[in-house]
Hints:
By secondary structure, the protein is mostly helical.
Amino acid sequence: xxxxxxxxxxxxxxxxxxxxxxxxxxxxxxxxxxxxxxxxxxxxxxxxxxxxxxxxxxxxxxxxxxxxxxxxxxxxxxxxxxxxxxxxxxxxxxxxxxxxxxxxxxxxxxxxxxxxxxxxxxxxxxxxxxxxxxxxxxxxxxxxxxxxxxxxxxxxxxxxxxxxxxxxxxxxxxxxxxxxxxxxxxxxxxxxxxxxxxxxxxxxxxxxxxxxxxxxxxxxxxxxxxxxxxxxxxxxxxxxxxxxxxxxxxxxxxxxxxxxxxxxxxxxxxxxxxxxxxxxxxxxxxxxxxxxxxxxxxxxxxxxxxxxxxxxxxxxxxxxxxxxxxxxxxxxxxxxxx
Length: 338
């Protein structure tokens, strides 16, 4: 074969290859792989009108992570507040103050002034006092039950249902998922507190006279100031439920059975109550979580006992830090098999 024929065939082959490269769907795989291998990844750049210019690096990635975090939290909150079990718990907690108020109204209407107990007499003249009474009645058992159900189910429920490994298969990260689960339980705890406060307040205003409020110290304050003190109590009790949620979440990382974490949290509460009732163990009592639950009555003093509220909040923060660390240490190194 002559040199001219060889060049002609080579030119024809080159033209055919060029035509293949131009036609979509007919590009040889080897050519595509070589082209991709030769081409460096193109950096993300700012829009042309951006003065900053340059490569979008960590700030953009951090912004995407933050957005994903809030979307995940919103999804978790939506699931929590649409679950019939959780709504039933909120409904029960909302009905209890109504029943309590009706019973006290009946007792105050049938008993004479000499026969009424101190708390009934105070409530008969102070409609806002039903809110504090409802907190005293519910904060040691029924409210912790509701919070423990949500927080105890956070990790164990996902593991037991076989959905935990699918959550972690997405680019979520264990620390971020744990934070979302905890914040979801905290929001539910404040929702529980708000439901009790609002239903008790409305029931008290409907059944008992409004106006000035007589505190435990004997001082009389206006109704507006009484409402502000109710807000303080709601914030304090909500913080108490957040500390309890940290305990339940930590237990939830040790099991794949949600009822086990829930029951374990409630057993710890009962044990703490028993220890508080034993005089020989008074030295341990100040360090128990339920001891601080009822310290919201500091708002019924004149002036408000902010030192008691501060000590309670510091105790709650310590429990959150301790059991949050336990939950993170356990969950970050746990083998996910379900």
